[in-house]
Specification:
By secondary structure, the protein is an alpha+beta fold. Among the domains are: about 1-55 and about 80-155 and about 255-325, FAD/NAD(P)-binding domain, CATH 3.50.50.60; about 160-250, 2-Layer Sandwich (D-Amino Acid Oxidase, Chain A, domain 2), CATH 3.30.9.10. Helix content is about 40%, strand content about 25%. It has helices spanning about 1-10, 40-45, 85-100, 145, 220-230, 280-300, 310-340, 345-350, 360-365, 375-385, 390-410, 420-430; strands spanning about 20, 35, 55, 60, 70, 80-85, 100-105, 110-115, 120-125, 125-130, 135, 160-170, 185, 195-200, 205-215, 235-250, 260, 265. The strands form five sheets. It has a seven-stranded mixed β-sheet, with helices on both faces. Helix 1 packs parallel to helix 3 (about 85-100), helix 1 (about 1-10) runs parallel beside helix 6 (about 280-300) and helix 7 packs antiparallel against helix 11 (about 390-410). The protein is globular and about 65 Å long. The chain starts with a helix and ends in a 5-residue tail after the last helix. Bound molecules: flavin-adenine dinucleotide.
Length: about 425
């Protein structure tokens, strides 16, 4: 999605742009379903929202072993929308083409071509395609990013920084009683690192089911998880009508190095999503705009053509990404890693007690910064029984750590200097050791 937005905006700056996509058409691109996107991104980029999009309802969180259920009431005005992905792909392809870009379907990108410390093109279906700039929007497993020389310093993820998910829309069992909660999210479902969800608030015929785990999801674990969900959600029928596929997306803070000479990563290729936050599509699209904006600014400053795509010039794109949303993703990633390390009974307590307000749960669910003022901290202490005070301190320490990561990420060096930027990267990575 980010690649297509970048294609449109760069073509409008009169660049000669080609997009290579392995699918045979927008209608057969991956993910035959709808996903949550903050509507502000459509307004900001002047892109129409696809028809059939609908407003999301509130979430209900279920604790690891199902003992505690907590409803989060969403602010209607700022709620995400769920957007059909294939019509959105079509809109983005049409806009890129109308702006003068060409989109080549059925084209498989194999790897980068690197010469003299610069990415100078890609191999597509065995052919060399040369370019002044390669925008890598091939998703988390991008063969282009993986193939870059280590000395470029472009960020690669660890094994435990991906989210492996199965998503399927089951035909609703017509004989089952209506569910009490229609948007359930199971945190650390069955004690495993990850989430599952059962959503049935939109289509009267379908139940939207997800089982996602950090690192890996075996077919045995998937079967157990679906069986468990079916037990408490008898509306889940047997026939899978949409989806029914395994997917891999990143589950980590954004790449601390997403640019190199002649290269810029965007979207999942640069780890711009955090599952559950409705962030991947919006962040990728916004990043497409920020990349083109950076190039446009350099052009109007009179930067010479041969310098336009040097790492020192592209760095400004990364600065914009971190200031717009990357720093918030860093803060959320610190929280996510911390919460996954909490014992299950601590999560039961956090969801079941009054320690987290509705607004705070909303912040956590939608990826907004969580800041606790003195008055609220005192209230939390008052509602916490003595035996849980140590737990409260742990939660508070985690919040502080997440705030510090946010501040450092937002303080990304404005200009590119190999030593200064490397030090910033090293310091930021310390928050994500586990
Ligand atoms: C189950 C699930 C639920 C999600 N829910 C949400 C949500 O609610 N909201 C949200 O914002 N995000 C959600 N996401 C995340 C979102 O899907 C990603 O963040 C987003 O798709 C990233 O877009 P992208 O264009 O960077 O990468 P991708 O969507 O991975 O797209 C990469 C593109 O590159 C193509 N490609 C890959 N390799 C090659 C190759 N070698 N040659 C040519 N083409 C290639 C692919 O076909 C694809 O079109 C969800 C993801 C999953 C799996």
């Amino acid at each position: 999605m980010g690649g297509l937005v970048a294609a449109e905006k760069l073509a409008k700056l009169s660049f000669d742009v080609t997009v290579y996509e392995q699918a045979s058409s927008p209608e057969t691109m991956r993910y035959d379903w709808h996903d949550d996107v903050n509507p502000s991104v459509f307004r900001r980029l002047g892109i129409e929202m696809p028809e059939g999009s609908f407003k999301k309802k509130s979430w209900t969180f279920v604790s690891p072993h199902g003992a505690v259920v907590r409803e989060f009431r969403q602010d209607e005005a700022t709620a995400d929308w769920s957007v059909e992905r294939r019509p959105l792909n079509k809109i983005l392809v049409d806009r890129a083409v109308a702006a003068g870009a060409s989109v080549v379907f059925g084209a498989r990108v194999e790897r980068a071509i690197v010469e003299k410390s610069t990415v100078v093109g890609v191999i597509v279906d065995g052919r060399e395609e040369r370019a002044d700039l390669v925008v890598d929007s091939l998703g988390v497993s991008s063969p282009v990013r993986k193939d870059l020389p280590v000395e470029f310093g472009v960020t690669q993820h660890r094994e435990n920084e991906v989210f492996v998910a199965y998503r399927a829309f089951y035909r609703k069992n017509p004989d089952a009683p209506a569910p009490k909660y229609t948007n359930k999210v199971y945190l650390k479902h069955m004690g495993e690192a990850g989430i599952s969800w059962v959503i049935q608030d939109h289509d009267p015929e379908l139940v939207n089911v997800l089982v996602g785990r950090i690192g890996s999801l075996s077919s045995y674990d998937l079967e157990r998880a679906i069986e468990d969900l079916k037990k408490t959600n008898p509306t889940i029928g047997t026939e899978v009508v949409r989806g029914g596929e395994m997917c891999v997306i990143p589950v980590r803070y954004p790449a601390t190095r997403m640019v190199a000479n002649g290269y810029a990563a965007i979207g999942d290729a640069a780890y711009m999503t955090i599952p559950m936050l409705g962030s991947g599509i919006a962040s990728g699209m916004l990043a497409g705009q920020l990349l083109a904006e950076t190039v446009g600014e350099n052009l109007s400053r009179g930067v010479k053509k041969e310098d336009l795509f040097k790492v020192s010039r592209l760095w400004r794109y990364q600065v914009k990404v971190f200031r717009e949303f990357g720093a918030v993703h860093c803060a959320v990633d610190v929280l996510k890693r911390g919460v996954l390390g909490f014992p299950d009974n601590m999560l039961d307590w956090m969801l079941g007690s009054e320690v987290l307000t509705n607004e705070e749960i909303g912040c956590l669910a939608s990826g907004k910064m969580l800041r606790v003022g003195v008055k609220e901290a005192i209230r939390k202490i008052n509602v916490t029984e003595y035996s849980r005070l140590r737990t409260l301190i742990k939660v508070n320490n985690l919040l502080q750590k997440s705030l510090m990561a946010y501040r450092l990420a937002r303080n990304i060096p404005r200009n590119y200097d190999p030593n200064i930027t490397r030090t910033w990267e090293e310091n930021l990575k310390r928050y994500f050791k586990r």
